[in-house]
phenylalanine--tRNA ligase
Amino acid sequence: MEQKISKIEKDYSEKIQKAQSLKELDGIFLALFGKNGELDLLPKEFSKLSPDERCRIGPLFNAVKQELEKTIEVRRNEIREQSYIKLVDEKLDLAETTQIKQRQGHLHLATQFKKEIIDLFENLGFYQFDAPHVEWDKYNFETLNIPKDHPSKDMWDTLYIDTSKLGVEPGQMLLRTHTSNFWSRLMEKGQTPIRAMSFDRCFRYEAVDARHSHTFNQFEIAVVGENITMANLKYLSDCLLKTILGEEAKSRFRPKYYPFVEPGVGIDSLCVFCHGKGCKICSGTGWFEIAGAGMIHPNVFKLTGQNPKKCTGLAWGFGPDRILMLKHGIEDIRYFLEGDLKFLQKY
Ligand SMILES: [Zn+2]
């Protein structure tokens, strides 16, 4: 037994000294102290020894065990120190990193589009007006001829703000569902004539998928003044469509209901992919809906303190994200909000 213990001590001391890595040392440690390791199995043989032998072997075994543990620890520290010295000596040549391809940043696709549209309408004499994202029901709905509890409110899936701690009645504060709050605010201010626009974010309580998002952009214009007619609406509509889709763009008006306009129109564009022949993108109809618009409802004039007999107005709005998807064949609206580099670099 004594010979066996001495042999283990000798063999393993040599192995520990020769070890060059922490991983190697871990292996040696397990071979000695792990389950079924040499020093784990050995005490099971002690029962065969006489009491005298046990008195001699016990302390020897313990001493060897402690010695080997200590040797492993010392060697572990030596190896750590050596790798640290290696690290300190290592040099990093920054010149080598110049091989990495340099990339130039650019504006987001939606921002480029926004700039293009804003430039066009600034040239037509429009100014930008930013309205709050967190809005009162009054400006998002009520003054736009959508009274409380009116069924037409169901046209918008609204995200309401929890106002329980603000001392505000529930349902009064919300995330605006459209950009139309900008012109209901302007009309209430009484700053007519109005020739304003807004390109900004809106929010709806939507289940997110490839075609729907809870956060999206809208572009809207509003004109209020004397003798504003459907002819102005048609002219501005064509101006915008030609800018977005090219000179050959054609539009048609269809009657459509929106509570804040009368008459209201849905604006279709001749499909730019099949030129009206019918394709997958326009679902075979030759047209696709691009915007909603109309003449501002007389009730909106009254609700904002204006006189509908003195002036008239028009409003025109569309979703730029959807148009960009059509134009560039982008299949998922979520790309607009995610910072996916592959998408950002492509456009
Ligand atoms: Zn088509």
Remarks:
- The domain at 109-346 is CATH 3.30.930.10 (BirA Bifunctional Protein; domain 2).
- The chain has two domains: 2-95, 109-346.
